[in-house]
Structures are given as C-alpha cells and as structure tokens.
Amino acid sequence: MSDEPELRRDPVTGRWAVVAPARAARPHELGDARPRCGPAAALACPFCEGAEHDTPHEVYALRAAGSAPNGPGWRLRVVPNKFPALQTLAKPQAAYGCAEVLIDCPEHVENPADLSDAHQRDVLCAYRARLAAHAADPRLAHVAVFKNVGAEAGASIAHTHSQLIALPVVPGLLQAELSGAEAHFARAGHCVFCELVERERTDGTRVVAETAYFVAVAAYAPRFAYEVWLLPKEHAPCYEAIADGAALELAGLMRRVLRALDAVAGAPAYNWFLHTSPLRAGDLPHYHWHIELMPRTARPAGLEWGFGAHIVTVAPERAASALRAALPAQ
Amino acid sequence: MSDEPELRRDPVTGRWAVVAPARAARPHELGDARPRCGPAAALACPFCEGAEHDTPHEVYALRAAGSAPNGPGWRLRVVPNKFPALQTLAKPQAAYGCAEVLIDCPEHVENPADLSDAHQRDVLCAYRARLAAHAADPRLAHVAVFKNVGAEAGASIAHTHSQLIALPVVPGLLQAELSGAEAHFARAGHCVFCELVERERTDGTRVVAETAYFVAVAAYAPRFAYEVWLLPKEHAPCYEAIADGAALELAGLMRRVLRALDAVAGAPAYNWFLHTSPLRAGDLPHYHWHIELMPRTARPAGLEWGFGAHIVTVAPERAASALRAALPAQ
Fold first, then answer.
1. Mean pLDDT of A289-303
2. How close is the nearest chain B Cα to the Cα of A223, in Å?
3. Which residues in chain A have their CB less than 8 angstroms from residue B303's CB?
4. Which of A54, A108, A135, A293 lies deepest, with the highest CB count within 10 Å?
5. What is the mean pLDDT of chain A?
6. Global pTM?
7. Closest to B18 (Cβ–Cβ): which among A147, A171, A309?
8. Residue A9: per-residue pLDDT
9. In chain B, which residues have pLDDT < 50?
10. What number is the average pLDDT over the span A59-65?
11. Torsions phi, psi of A298, nearest 5?
C-alpha cells in the first residue's frame, strides 16, 4: 500500500474522503483549550517571523520592498502545507490538489480578532489572489478556504492562519448548496441568498450587524449555537470580485462579530468557511458567496453525525440579540 | 420567545435543525476521557437500578415476572428523554416527535462491549420493538437510533444507553442515502448495498469479520479512521424484520469489532447509527439497513464541517487488517 493521498467517493451518498496516511505525522501543539498567547508558545512556533525555515517555500507573500523570499520582512505568507492532504503531482488514483497554509501575520498573534482591520483586509485579499491563481489550473474545480481556531475546532497550530485546499472536485456540502440554490432559482426566478438577505433585513430579529456592503445574521437553522453568516447585501456569486474597500469593511465587521462572540459564548473554538462559486463558474445568477462562522458551542453526537440533524440550545433570535448587545460600536 | 422545541429547515441545503432551548439545562457528568467504570460513578448514576425515580416513567421494559413498572427488577428500560429535543404534543411550528433513552442494563456498565451477547441481543430487539411502536404514529416519518459512547462523541451520561429520536421528517443524511441508493437502482437494477457487500467479500481487503448473516467492513470512503459498517449479507430494507437469532449473531459481531477497535485505536469515543428505511416505507428494493460505527479518531475541522470532505490518516485497508489481527476469535 502506498502512502500517497487518495481521493475516494462514497458510492451511495457521494461524500468525499481524502485518505492521507502521511498527515498522521503532523505535530499537535494545542491541547483542549482555545489557544492562549504567550512568549513560550511563540518561541517554538513554526509560523512566527524568523522561523521561515520551518515551512516549505512560500508561494505568495506580502513583503517589504527588497526583502528576500523565505526570510524575514513579510507581513503575510502563503506556503504549501507541510503535511498535505493532497499532492500537486497527478498520479493515477492520487488525490490531485493543493493544500496551502496562509500565515496571517509575522507576530505571534493567536486571536484573529487581534489583527488590525487593514491587516485582516490583506488576508481577505490574499484569499482572492490564491483563488485567482488556482483558477488558472484547469484540473482544479474548487478551493475550500477556511480557518480553524482552537483545538476543539481542529487547529493544530495556535498562530493565526487560514487553510486553502484546492480540489479536483466540487465538495459535497458546496454541491448541495449549489443544487439547492439552483432549484430555488428555477422555482422563484431569483437568488435564494438575495431573498435571505432581504427577508432577514426586513425581519431584523436575526441581524447581528450591518455595514454598507455586508450583513451578519444568526443562521436561521444553525448547526451550532451562535452560528453567524456574513453575506454581501448585493448579489455576488464570486468572492474573487471583492474590491479592496469592501474587503476592509468585511474585515472590520468580522472583528466586531468575533469580539461579540468571544464575549457572549466564552471565547469558543470556531471555524469559518468561505463558500463561493466553483472555479471558472462565471457569474451564476443563483449563487451568492458568503462566510459561515461556526462556533463549536456543543459536541455533535449521533443525531448530527449519523442523520445530519442538529440540536441547538440557543434560539438564533436570542443569539442575535446577545451578540448585538455585545458588539463593539467600531 | 418560547422555550418549546422548534424544527427548522435551512432553505438552501435542506438541513434540519432542532432549536431546543430547554436542553441547555441537561447535566453533564462526563469530562473529556472515555467513561471509566467505578463505584463513585455508579453512586450518582441516574440510569442504575434503584434510581428509577431519576428518570421519567418507562415506556418499554424487560422485567422479571411480577416486578412493578418504574421500580427495580428490570434488565432493560426505555424512558422518555428528560431533556427532550422534541416534544410529543404537536403545536404550530413545534418540533413534533419523541426522544427516548434506552438504558441498556441495570448494572453500572459503561462499555457496551461488556454486555453479554444475550443482553446486547435484547437491546437490539428493543430497537426493533420501538421502531414498530413508532411506526403506528402516522405523524412520524423516521426514527434515528444511535449510541454515543464517550464525552468526545457527545455522551453526557456514562452508563451505557442508546437514544431513539422519532422525527416528523426523514433527516438529511438518511434522505441523501435513500436518494443515492434509488439512483443506483434506477441505473444498475440492483441494490447498491448488496453490490457493496458482494464486492467487499470478493475483494476481502476491507473485510473485518464475517458471520452467517452479517459482514463488518472498513468503510471505503470513511469520515474517521477505523470507521466500520455492519451490514446484513442478504438484501434487507427494514431493521424491524430482524429475527432474534440474527440479532444474537449481530450482538456477538459488534462485541468482537468493538473489542478490536478498543485494542487498535486506544478505546476511542465513538457513535453508532442504525440506518434503516423510513417508517412504513415497505420493502424497498433499493435500500438496505446497516449500522455505521464511527470512532472519533480525529477532530473534524473546516474542510469537514464547511465542505463535507473528510481527511483520514489511516487507509481503510490498513484499518481492516489491524482490526482483523485484534479480533477476538469468539
């Protein structure tokens, strides 16, 4: 048996599995708690400035003029994942793809809400740049962009970072969303997410915050208590089209929502996912990119994993009201 | 806002959420580790014989002749969940359903593999009895039967028990399975699970164990390392049709597989789910009941939760080989 990653599809449900034995070797610096900042953690951190030799060579970076790649002088770096779930050399049956790590900043920051809005904008714009870069590879179908914060949310390194996994297939949950949105468009003649934005803004009970371009709402049928979705208010199928100004606004909105979440739910571990159109899908009339912020406020059990039904103990309307009350003004 | 459970459906993906604020009050006796047996634990256990007053009145029980309901003298009890996710009184928008707890045995046993095969057969036959009872209520569409073992798998009480959640809808993952199986039948003219059983038995690399009626295989595209499915070898759409003798055989097979899993994967937390036909669906030619045993051998992160793609670091063929080597002969 080989140790090369392999992409497998369940023949009944279509669910994808990446069988990646080499990933078992990756280090785990995090215990159970949400990461805590401290000099001891920074000392051994492979993502801090000065430890560039601990990562593979960078594929993208924002650097001071004149600084050399793979050395200090950067403010954001993207490197291939050292323990990749997929590999870039296509072989028969192998899982073709790219697994990249976006290191948000050179200092040992563990809470993404501690980044400045301008810095978080750079992170959001780096997502855009990597999506555009992967779109040029016709073998890739989709890029899963996500962030794991805290061990309970699957993070193995505390230094704030994002992951980008470029896949040769459109993954199951995104495909389900696309199909659902397409069916709604066929039925109703408009984008289901545009309808959601309008309905939530009119109703107001689940709105957490609103800016010129974006709205943050407590998910109507959440998987976890305090789950919040951030959506552009106008129809926007492709994240790649986000302008720098909108990205800066989104950065500020995310910081405020994350601060409110930390205050209300006790700094829970969380994931966020960017859901956007598949690569090269063009301007889909039925799809609308958004970010889902999913705090790990419970431990999913048999009902969730075995049947896909979720129990939450905080009504989204109460969650929104609590988050609104805890939201920093700016 | 009311505290009554409410069933909500995500308008895009169709995913169900049960919003159940009252459940936040339920006790959590378990920490992080897999439950450990001990006299201290038994003393405060609400599921032990003698503590019948700690649970709602039983709806089903196997009892010594002459013993009174809701007192000692039982060997298996089913009681309504004290902190239900759903309620039996239908109200507008309320989540109609039943949440029941099946207490496997009166002694303080924490590891289901410590039950005798005859006792585990009684548990499996109680599943059958409760499915038949709920089938008589036309407002119910499906019963989710599952077991959570260990805090990491969502268990809040260590005493071995199962949960039965009767729902007014067919939950998402089961619906996806039914649709996939139906599409395969339309294409190929036979049941996809029958094909799976035949292919796995011919190939052999993923077979963990086999008995006269059942086969246990490492899932081809698993969510977690060491995920094992137990399937009837002959076509069988409805679990309710299982005979006592087959249930006894399945009990022994489960015990052996659980012992091997404990030995190979370090007694992980796990869930098992019974996937069977919706209530009153009749003898579907395309569906085939089975049990999925899902050990929590990793912490799912953004790729799993956000995109439905799973990374496993142990190839199913290696998992099967290790489990075979650790399998008790009887």
1. 96
2. 7
3. 85, 144, 146, 163, 165, 171
4. A293
5. 90
6. 0.91
7. A309
8. 86
9. 1, 32-33, 35-38, 89-90, 92
10. 94
11. -155, 170
pLDDT of residue A13: 83
Give the pLDDT confidence score for residue A238 in this predicted structure.
98
Is A219–B10 a contact, with Cβ atoms under 8 angstroms apart? yes
Domains, in order of start, for chain A: 39-172 (3.30.428.10), 175-326 (3.30.428.10)
Closest Cα in chain B, distance from residue A87 (Å): 13
Q: What is the pLDDT of residue A188?
A: 96
Q: pLDDT exceeding 70 applies to what percent of chain B? A: 89
pLDDT of residue A93 exceeding 70:
no
Q: What is the pLDDT of residue A96?
A: 79
- DSSP class of residue B56? P
Secondary structure E strands in chain A: 6-9, 16-19, 60-63, 74-80, 98-103, 142-149, 161-167, 207-210, 214-218, 228-232, 270-275, 290-295, 309-312
Phi, psi of B56, deg, nearest 5: -60, 165
Q: Let me know: does B18 contact B107? Beta carbons within 8 Å.
A: no
pLDDT of A49 over the 90 cut: yes
CA distance B166 to chain A (A): 11
- The predicted complex's ipTM stands at 0.91
Q: In chain B, which residues have their Cβ closer than 8 Å to the Cβ of A223?
A: 15, 17, 305
How many residues in chain A? 330
Residue A14 with chain B: CB contacts under 8 Å = 176, 180
Residue A68: both structure tokens together? 């050399």
Rounded-to-5 percentages of helix, strand, coil across chain B: 35, 20, 45
**Pair type for strands B16-19 and A309-312:** parallel
Which residues neighbour B21 within 8 Å (Cβ) at sequence distance 6 or greater? A313, A314, A315, A318, B3, B5
Least CB–CB distance from B192: residue in A9, A12, A15: A12
Q: Note the Cα B271 to chain centre separation in Å.
A: 7
CA distance B255 to B102: 18
* Predicted confidence (pLDDT) at residue A92 exceeds the cutoff of 60: no
Partner residue facing A318 (CB), from B1, B8, B219: B1
Distance CA A14, CA B315 (A): 18
CA distance B17 to A224: 9
- The CA distance from A300 to B273, in Å, is 13
Q: How far is B92 from chain A (nearest CA, A)?
A: 17
In angstroms, the CA A9 to CA A57 distance is 32
- Residue A128 structure tokens: 């855009």
Asked if A11 lies within 8 A of B220 by C-beta distance, the reply is yes
Among A163-167, A249-253, B212-216, name the one with the lowest average pLDDT: A163-167
Q: Is the pLDDT at A161 greater than 50, yes or no?
A: yes
Share of chain A above pLDDT 90, in %: 78
Tell me the residue ranges of DSSP E strands in A137-269. Answer: 142-149, 161-167, 207-210, 214-218, 228-232
Angle between helices A192-203 and A172-188 (to 10 degrees): 80
CB contact under 8 A, A151 and B299: yes
